């Protein structure tokens, strides 16, 4: 599991770096590393969860495991989405200055949602040429921050899991085995 988390963390950090590098190759390398880590991590996660559950309850355990994994994914999407939105808005606010400050929240929320035309519709025609590249840069900066945070959290998780796996919790013996 620690290897998978390390690869996912490194892949996210490489993706954050690729945002600034641009081009196909940096993203291809970053995504390959992230994908390799996710592939290792998925199988190990389910295997380790199911190892903690008695065989007689494996159906229930599998259902709970899947529910919890998908709940964690949804929570992460919400948290990372909020980070993307707030950081993109901060970057856009800093780059626009005071002239369009009242439109910044609306522009940023639409850009983060992937709707640049609606974001630009909030501005006069003359301002769109200047603001659109700034809005794109703000999104790129916000996305890079999300990738840095995800990468660092992945590496931190790898350290914690690696340390815990060195000293596993002893398996609890069933009562009928202990009674013998």
Using only C-alpha atoms, the radius of gyration works out to: 22 Å
Q: For the report, how would you describe the main beta sheet?
A: none
Distance between the termini: 35 Å
Can you count the beta strands?
Answer: 0
Mean pLDDT over the full residue set: 89
The parts where pLDDT drops under 50 for at least 5 residues are: none
| Helix-strand sequence | HHHHHHH
Helix content estimate: over 70%
User: How many structural domains are formed by the residues?
Assistant: 1
Relevant terms:
180 residues, mainly alpha, 7 helices, elongated
Q: Can you give a write-up of this model?
A:
This protein has helices at 2-21, 24-51, 58-96, 104-112, 116-120, 125-166, 175-178. It is mainly alpha-helical and 180 residues long. Helix 3 (58-96) packs across helix 4 (104-112) and helix 3 runs antiparallel to helix 6. The protein has one domain (2-178).
